[in-house]
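Can anyone check this?
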Amino acid sequence: MNDFIKRLLEQVTTLWGKWSLIQRLTLIGIVVAAIAGLSLITVMSAQPSRVALINSAIKDAQAVVAIAARLDQENIPYTQSEDGHIYVNDQKTALRARVILFRENLIPTQTDPFAIFDVERWTITDFERDINKQRAMTKALEQHIGALEDIDNVAVELVMPTDSLFKEDQKATTASVHLTPRPGSDIATNRKKIEGILKLITFAIPGLKAENVVVTDQTGIVLNDFVGMVGMDRLELGKREMDFKRKMESQYTETILAALQTIYKTDRVRIVKLDLKLNTDAQSIAKEEHTPIVISAANPLTNEPAVVKDAFVLSQSSNKENFAGTGFNPEGPAGQEGQTPPAYKDLSNLVGNYTKDSQITNNAINTEKSTIEKSPIRIDGVSLAVALDGTWKKVYKADGTVEVEPNGNIKRTYEALSQQAVQQAKSILQAAIGYNSVRGDQVAVENIAFDRTDQFEKENAQFRAEQQTQSTLLVVIVGLVVLLIAFAVFRIVSREMERRRRLREEELSRQHQAMREAALRSAEEEGVQVEMSVAERARLELQETAINMAREHPSDVAQLIRTWMAEE
């Protein structure tokens, strides 16, 4: 292998050396062009290809707008060309979009949603073309139906008979579709989805009618047997009507409760029953009226009345006949009885007078025809029952406190609603529901005492707890007051005892001092030298100073003594 490469390189080098400059430039240009072409092909092939949603152009502007709106709703990106074609990103998206458009009946009837055979051979026969066409249709149907989210697997069989010379001998095109639903799918019971599949199939096959299509599931049950589903449709319709009835009754109940609760308290109103009789039968009434012809309208400026005529004469025909004398009654051949009726035979050969006068007039009148479509949902009757509670009032004593029964509960009295109040509430309810006695509406309002045992038990328990709390607080307050009084008495007694003790001590001190002074004076008088301690001398000097100050400034000493007494 290496020798081959070496020889090839030597040959290329030899040729390159023999070539002229023009030949070398030509080779380089060819290589560059080849590389550029390959690069361009690679870039073009790497770009995402667009798939036509429908092969034929859509000329109807309204259909294009409807399809574009549905694709926007499904968040499917698309582009639209100037010639009316719509393109999406890939084949899978195109299949899903086609299924949605078929189900919503948005595919124009004049368009062909399937691929046409662009490649043909000169040697292909008509039989092969028919087989290829049938196979292509079958494959396209399987792809479209298999793109549905509810389908796990699908198999389609088409029977397309050849064209017959006479129409009455032509056999119908038939189709059988075998579906395998995904787990959890409701396609077996969803009629709308089955109808969408039927539309997809009938639109795809020319001349195929819905009654010639059979759709079965993996168990062999026919899914498009809508005749057998009449009972289920009736049940489904009844279920929807009952749901709508409950919704209407709920709205009526909320409205009535909101109105009554603004008048009475919330816990005093109970709607026992509200029953609406709904009529969902669709009615259409054709009406024809004949009105006079207005020749000229009324003029309000001149007060001229309108000129009205019942009718115009379009045509008139008159016919008058007069006859007098005996009429001619032809007879039959000789010897034969004539054929004159017996009624006229009795009048033969009689002289009479006959007059006939007829007149036919054709008139033109105004005719107005109208059709009145009544609402599909009407209320044929309303039954309403409401219970209203009276008022419970607590009984109070003269001092304003609540009166208590022997068992400790609050004493209450019940005050029922008056008949006038009940009648007023009934009138309000009749106006709220649009009461009509002709259609059999019923409104009942009664004053009923509600059972409030649980509520009263809670209130009584709370009242007893409050009473117990008040009693406890009262005992605590009384105890505190007694303690304060005892403390005050103890404080006063203590101060008094302290004052008396101090007075006794002062008295004893004065007595001792007096005795000491008397002893000193007697000693001085006797000339006896008495030795005193330093403390006694200081005390004696302080006493003499106080006595002298009291004599010289009695008011200041008195104020000082009062201050001492106040501090003690």
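Reply from J.R.: I decoded it. The longest helix spans residues 453-526.
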